[in-house]
Amino acid sequence: MSQEFTDNIDTYDQWKSDIGRSLSRFRLWLRRNDLFSEDLDSRLFKLQESLKSEYLTLAFVGEFSRGKTELINSLFFAEYGQRILPSEAGRTTMCPTEIYYDRKEDRPYLRLLPIETRLEETTLTEYRNMPSQWTEVPLMTASAQEMTLALHTITQTKRVSLDEAIKLGFKEDMLERSEDDASMVEIPAWRHAQVSFAHPLLKRGLCILDTPGLNALGSEPELTLKLLPSVQAVVFLLGADTGVTASDMKIWEDYIQPLDGESRLGLYAVLNKVDTLWDELSSRKKVEKAVKRMVSTTARQLQIDAKQVIPVSAQKALVAKVRADKSMLIKSQITELEHLLSSSLLENKEQIIWDSVAKEGKELVEEALQLLANKNDRIYKQREELQSLTGENKQRINELIEENKKDLIEFEHRLLAIKPSQRLLERQTQILLSTIGATVLTKEVEITLNELVNSKTTIGLFSNMRQFFLAVNTIMKELTREAELTNKMAISLYDKFSNDFGMTLLEPKLFPAKRLSRELNTIIKHSKRIDKNLFTTFTEHSLAVRRFFSGTVTEVLQFFQSTRQELISWTENVIHPLTQQLKIQQKLITEHQQELAELNKSRANLDGKIKALNNLVEEIEMETQTANELIKSLEDKKPTDQDSNIVRISSVNR
């Protein structure tokens, strides 16, 4: 990969580290200012941990034998001086392969999921957390030759009976019968592969997804379709010698084009094997014109901008890098693709991290800063009271003691008065939780299972699937309706609190029911594409139903479980600023009462107490400045459109 790509990855890594350091400084700031709580510290710790677990994912998708693996070799692994991933003639990717660096295990490995697991109800997501179900092959990264040999295991096949192959979900017309035994056929040995090793780019968080041809024998459309929406860039490979074929177009329309709505996704069509258009008997201008015409035609057929179509020769690029042939490298046009990928990968991921980590961290700092500001207001008032005590004015001290007692009594009365509003919000939250409770969801799952099992036709299956999606959408609509009422209650509680206690508060963070509803719709949209393929791939009815439940239904249930957890967390977090304010104010009133009582006995330390409050005011001013600097440091990390070089998906010819 080019130095530009490496530099951009380094910049991204530094960008993440800066956010992590700002969050660490904030955690220390909270402790210094007596604003620490275990719940808040836990939230900040989780934000920091999520920074460490983020991957930059780049997917290579296309028809069988378009050169996806060869392009990966030329982009990322040319420094080994040979092909690391099997991409030579006669060898092809037989199953989806993820290439990354496992930070937790911190060791190289090749893990392979046996094809027989297709018969199980366990989802691929669940299998990821079941290492005992995978076959592990030692990966000797010190030797390029040993690595190449180990990775060739991915291409292994096995012979099984035709009936067994069909049960596993393979279509009969795609299977090749054995020459010496017509009852036996050859199928991929593995369903999925995971490769971990300490390549410099992989260690910085890059993850590469290599897919078999999505209409090829070893395709796992469930896995591919689930992974594609979460990637930062997709490279769709075509043959420069063939252009967009009918099978290419089907893959584009079924798998890639639906991603058009995904925000900030880098999407590129690569015309590979452009060297087939090189003609030594034609002039350079004539060849360039032919390539340009092919790019224009491809862009028109795929309905994308011509800037998103890049002609490349992966094979020539690999040879050029291995031989250090600069002339051939330029001719291969690989550097343009490297530039576009580095831009789109980073811009997409930075926006995701800003939205999910840095933005929340910034909001927590602003919330804490408001707590400190209210504390400062109270201290100013107490200082003014002490400064008013001049001479031997004992009567004034007694007046202040009485006023402070009244403040404390009034504070406690207001505390009791606000409790009903808090309880009302808590009861409303319980209503929200019951809306998406296990009982409601289990009932819908049981109904769906019964209907699917009794369906006699494919049309019936699809009809019952639609009914399931309608049912969960209805549940989500009810949650959204109740959430609107809950959010109004939260706003009302904050207003009452602010008015009763005379404190300034930030607006409450509302429960994001509409965002969650959009997420569910996205899950359903992606699931419909998977399930359409599922019920046409698996000829055995019961297996298709089991896969639907282990995949789609499980994902929907996991979504609602996650939503429940988010709701519980939201309830705790929306009350947190109020309870923190009350604790701070109550403590200040009590401490001031003690100060006045001491002054009533002896005026000797009045100047000392005023000086202590002056010091505290100065400290708060300094800590306020520090908090504002933290806010600015996080705000400065926000990606801007001006910083982006990403090529947007065009709406040309739509």
Automatic annotation (TrEMBL):
Presence of the UniProt keyword Coiled coil in the record: yes
TM annotation in the entry: none
Entry keywords, A to Z: Coiled coil
UniProt keyword Coiled coil present: yes
Domain Dynamin N-terminal: 58-260
Coiled coil, from the record: 582-637
Native organism taxonomy: Bacteria, Pseudomonadati, Pseudomonadota, Gammaproteobacteria, Oceanospirillales
Domain of life assignment: Bacteria
Source organism per UniProt: Aliikangiella marina
InterPro entries: Dynamin_N, P-loop_NTPase, TRAFAC_Dynamin-like_GTPase
Protein name per Swiss-Prot or TrEMBL: GTPase
